[in-house]
Amino acid sequence: MPSWWPVGGPSMAHLWPIDGPSMVHSFGGMGNNGQVKPSIDAAPDKPDKMKASLLLSTALLGLGSAIPMTFDLSEEMIAKLRTGTSSGEFSIAATGTTANEFLQGGCRSVIFLYARGSTQDGNVGGSPGPQTIDQLKARLGETAVAAQGLAYPASLLDNLRSEGCDPDDADAFSALITKAATDCPSAKLVISGYSQGAALVHAASRRLSAAVRARVAAAVTFGDTRKQQDGGAVPGIDASRTLILCHTGDRVCEGTLIITDAHHDYEDLSPTAVNFIASKV
């Protein structure tokens, strides 16, 4: 039996998960201003547990049908999502949650372009972006790497879109990658992202010209929500230059949007990412 059960017609998705942790995140519908209202609901069939309902206007999101989706989140994770902080604990990184070294400082030998996950702070989030950046600089040299995060809303609901992200955000990431390729013709480009940011790596790559794709030395994703849909590949990037990192049990890598503990704490795979990047640049 699946962990969700959809009820409602094609224009609305209303999902009740029937298993999972004791607390899960819920969206309570649309407010008067058209914004989604969060709420926590008790499941009528199991009053001793808290269940998630997801009531979304897929027409508003530009979607044609109901989509199976469950956000299985602990109470602590809910609080972090509501405050916009990173979900999952992480070690303190020197980089912080924002990196603008390319846009503010220009070209370096390696330009690391990164898209953070949904609801994360800054433009590189709390994990695994900063840890990967710090370790890459330690490996290649502080002044050899320009780290640049993508400034985009990172809205949780954009995961429901057909590409797993807002197409405008994909356009913005593609434009940022193209700018780096154009402004810095001798630089090695690395594109990376976590969760929804991984979806942006996929979507942006589709939008790149062949010439710019050829400039991408490495594409690395963490907790990739588009791994299954794109057949374990990043569109247009050769497999030899692609690394998709997924924890065992991370179900977003299996073509679902079910969020489990395995979707967090990806900084433990930063060394693997850095080793791969260093071998390509």
TrEMBL record:
GO CC, any one term: extracellular region
Any GO MF annotation of the entry: cutinase activity
Pfam families: Cutinase (PF01083)
Primary residence: secreted
Active-site residues, record numbering mapped to chain: S195 (nucleophile), D250, H263 (proton donor/acceptor)
EC number: 3.1.1.74
Reactions catalysed according to its record: cutin + H2O = cutin monomers
GO terms of biological process kind: carbohydrate catabolic process
Entry keyword annotation includes Nucleus: no
Keyword hit for Secreted: yes
Subcellular location: Secreted
Annotated keywords: Disulfide bond, Hydrolase, Secreted, Serine esterase, Signal
Entry-linked SUPFAM superfamilies: alpha/beta-Hydrolases (SSF53474)
Principal EC category: hydrolase
Cystine residue pairs: C107-C184, C246-C253
Homology family: Belongs to the cutinase family.
Its biological purpose: Catalyzes the hydrolysis of complex carboxylic polyesters found in the cell wall of plants. Degrades cutin, a macromolecule that forms the structure of the plant cuticle.
Protein name according to UniProt: Cutinase
Protein's organism: Rosellinia necatrix (White root-rot fungus)
